[in-house]
Amino acid sequence: MGKEVVNKQVLFKDYIEGVPKESDMELKSSTIALEVKEGTQDVLLKNLYLSCDPYMRGRMRNFHNSYIPPFAPGSVLQGFVVAKVILSDHPDFKEGDLVSGMSGWEEYSIIPKGKNLTKITRTDLPLSYFVGILGMPGITAYAGFFEVCSPKKGEHVFVSAASGAVGQLVGQFAKLMGCYVVGSAGSKEKVDLLKNKQGFDNAFNYKEEHDLNATLQRHFPEGIDIYFDNVGGSMLDAALVNMKVHGRIAVCGVISQNSFQNAQAIHNINMVIPKRIRLEGFLQSDYAHLYPQFLENVINYIKERKITYIEDVAEGLENAPAAFVGLFHGKNLGKQVVHISDE
Amino acid sequence: MGKEVVNKQVLFKDYIEGVPKESDMELKSSTIALEVKEGTQDVLLKNLYLSCDPYMRGRMRNFHNSYIPPFAPGSVLQGFVVAKVILSDHPDFKEGDLVSGMSGWEEYSIIPKGKNLTKITRTDLPLSYFVGILGMPGITAYAGFFEVCSPKKGEHVFVSAASGAVGQLVGQFAKLMGCYVVGSAGSKEKVDLLKNKQGFDNAFNYKEEHDLNATLQRHFPEGIDIYFDNVGGSMLDAALVNMKVHGRIAVCGVISQNSFQNAQAIHNINMVIPKRIRLEGFLQSDYAHLYPQFLENVINYIKERKITYIEDVAEGLENAPAAFVGLFHGKNLGKQVVHISDE
Questions:
Q1: Does ipTM surpass 0.85 in this model?
Q2: Going by DSSP bridges, is the β-strand pair B278-281/B311-315 parallel, antiparallel, or unpaired?
Q3: CATH number of the domain encompassing residue A206
Q4: B192-201 residue pLDDT tens
Q5: Could you tell me which of B5, B2, B90, B81 has the C-alpha nearest to residue B43?
Q6: Is A288 on the interface with B (CB under 8 A)?
Q7: Could you tell me if B257 lies within 8 Å of chain A, comparing CB atoms?
């Protein structure tokens, strides 16, 4: 019988509608035995970094039949993590290994059969990168831009939520490809970072714009070739009328929408005909085959300082709910992670 | 100086909003000299069949910068025709040739430099087919289905306005490909023709359905792979929630929409993300390179009686305005043409 230790956890209380609040989650201390049963192939993790991602909101809703099931009310929240293996009954993992994968919002997690864990072999990069630029948001940006948007050198690219985990990478991938890139974000600080640190050709604070249609026309007088949509709603509507003929819209997220099923209506979808627009929704999970190529390319970009990656690191599990909720109010500056432990 | 003859014409009075009315057009008799000036390469046509097409509504609006300019108020309406060459100063055309192309809604038209006229060499097929199944609506259906929808054998296909010029062909192309096909139309008679004459697996009268979402769920319990959208609006919204993962939507037309710029809002566009839907608007004019292949294939289908093509033929130029207006009220049974003259 392994030693019993305290295990702080973040519980999901009950299904929500609208935007997550801190009170939808609860901090709890339970205990866990530091052991894995023989023959189970289970892996015991100590979680080091948690990832706060907008898609998790979808799992808080009582909406089944989507691409991922909802959280169970009363259970520990789940998300992408970087973790250290404490004990392992799985042949692929041993004590001390660093891994990334899906785990619980808690200090220690048992991963049955080590499901979907990936060993981290590159220790020359910050560990938190493996839930960000080298993790799900990274492959989302990479596959979404290079595969879904079919970009060509010189094209004019618009990215919304451009300073977020995905947006900041899309914009920089587009610059590396020789595109002209404009991003939208929700504060002067974010806009400044996009323009001065991340190489965007231009950026604007959508909160200061009263006519998004006119804003996009000003930034793209000849039209938009590619719109990478992280927000949905009125920004998508404004983009539709500002697209060039044969423009492409990759629909990645709808962070602006407080409700998925009662989302803001779109009025300009008919523009897809005269402009022959291709609009495509995607999930990074369909592009797992690109992961090795993605990892090699993006690690090179990082090493060669061709990409500037901005993270917002909250400290301590007890601050995870606020960090997560902050995503929906644009409080994060860059990719939001939560640091739980160094080892 | 050529002989002067009476030339009955249909004039476009002034820009419209909403749905075209007969009073937006005016019948007029003018005269025309039956001559072409030497050195002009002009061609004088006698128009035999006029084509009534929904896209023409777009040209009645004071909306510039689209893919085709609006009609000039006070001028003769223009559209696709089948015509006979009366006189020609153009080396490619001679008296007696049958041609298709863009001409006026009038008995006789001068086509400067014979612009965009195509000689009809297959005289073993009804002439009216060259503004329908072998003309613009045909290549629209062919390119839209085979190129935009990326169909695979066995897939489940939904076609709206399925008994129209384009829809009836899309459904039959899909059947030839081994798909399961359901169409929507606006009358029992149309539904019966789709099911009994045109080989659709099923069809329904949308006017008798009160919950399109439930209707599509009933017809596609496992979801829709391909939606060929001729109507827009609430049918598109209902299709979005009934698509399968990786479904494709080809947006061809918006006949249900009384206004393009103040179109009915779409509420379910966010479904493109979890379902990874590709939605694409298209115009047949981008697929001109497919025309020879299209013509050969479709003529074979006609000859082998693999396609049943239904036309609604109005008689006489004076009935052209009513025939055209009827499109927007679903009065046509099949492709609407107007027969003006036999020779």
A1: yes
A2: unpaired
A3: 3.40.50.720
A4: 999 999 999 9
A5: B90
A6: no
A7: yes
